[in-house]
Automatic annotation (TrEMBL):
Residue numbers spanned by region Disordered: 270-311
Protein name: TniQ family protein
Biased composition (Basic and acidic residues): 294-308
A Pfam cross-reference name: TniQ
Amino acid sequence: MNTVRTLPIRVVPVDGEAIESWLEAIAHRTHTAFGDLLTAVGLSPYNGMGTTAWIVCLNPDEVATISTATGIKPDVLETMTLQHYSGRAVRIKPDARMLSRAFPWGRGRGSRFCPACLETTGGRWQLRWRLGWTFACTIHNCLLADACPHCGAVQRRRTHIGDIIPQPGRCSHPAPDATGRSPTRCGADLTTAAVAVFDSDHPVIHAQRVVNTVLDRDTVTFGVYQTVPQPGLNVLADIRAVAGRALAYATPQDLETVIPQDLLGVYRATAEPSDSRSGPARTDTKPGGTGTGRDCRGRSGSRCERLGSPRRGVRRGYAALAGDLLTGARIGRPRNEHRVG
Ligand SMILES: [Zn+2]
Ligand SMILES: [Zn+2]
């Protein structure tokens, strides 16, 4: 039943924003603990905290109460959950509001992020950053960051804790050495995370633009799909299959001949074993596998060595890079760039 009241202050979602980012922004703006804000918009903090159900999909009652409380139209709210990408970039289990892990590269754990986007928007998170297929920012031409530059925690694996006021753009994970029921937060400025930056016409940025086009369309009609258009889901499956083949049959030396050296350097730096630290879970490498490299951009000093460093999924990360490049090479790639295969 819709029993919520209209909030006194309205915050408009930014284009492409994830719903939890927007709700956190409202809580911050109204100086409200996040759990209280959830209650105010009709999301139960007891059912909602610690889960990702309403990040995946809102049920009709939730859509109604959030819309009433915030003044944002239901059709806009429905573009702010992963349901928006259902059947295109993720597959949602019926009646469970959970994502199928069988979907190819459907979603990594948590959310990657573009530090520059966080800085320019005041700490607002794009829904697209949650997708396993999003590895770069095509606005700032950089790979996305995988984790907090200070504590190494993958961001947004769960909803924000309920008993504090969110601080947009800051790491809300417990501080590495914090203890107790309400441990001190890390609080690191995520806009300072170092990421590799490329030219706008670099193959990896071009590959992300192509993938974005696939994600945004129901049917793909370009490149090799001109003659027989295919659903985006089939195209993503093709990309993954091609990447798998490339890895199965190519040696590292073979891949070196087709992957740009700067990108290869980033990958190698990321894939190297790190000095092991206890603490929050670190990231697996999926498409992107980012964080370190020669082109690191760290606006508060060198933090390159503290990012990424996946200890698992190295080959999957290589597959991602190969797949990205194959995508860029095979579909609408500029003619003067190196061609794969
Ligand atoms: Zn960006
Ligand atoms: Zn942190």
